[in-house]
Amino acid sequence: NISYHSITDKGGRAVNEDSLGILPTKDALYFLLCDGLGGHGSGDIASSFVVEQMKANLEKGISVEESITRTQQALLDGQNENDIDLSYDKQFRCEFRARRRLPHLLF
Predict the structure, then answer these.
(1) Strands of 1-106, DSSP E
(2) What is the pTM of this model?
(3) pLDDT tens digits, residue range 36-84?
(4) Those residues with Cβ within 8 angstroms of residue 64's Cβ, 6 or more apart along the chain or in another chain
(5) How many helices (H) and strands (E) does the chain have?
């Protein structure tokens, strides 16, 4: 068993642009963190979108590397097609991190 907690801070922003996701699979436990880049355009929407897309891809058994590629393309496609709410400006910006814990390894 592993215990974990998450803490996030919106800093000086009106909206918290951080998104967190935890995804247990039969082979690993994934910790996903996406930090919207405040002031650069809809960071809260971008970070939430990226975490949800990554979770969906990883649940399908797609590798982390391919999941990142697919998620980036989905974000660009949605941005270009205006399928995603672009209420702040026309470009999403965020930074993504993932950590995979395999059952037999500790980090």
Answers:
(1) 18-24, 29-36, 94-101
(2) 0.75
(3) 766 556 777 888 888 999 999 999 999 989 999 999 888 878 776 655 5
(4) 30, 58, 98, 100
(5) 2, 3
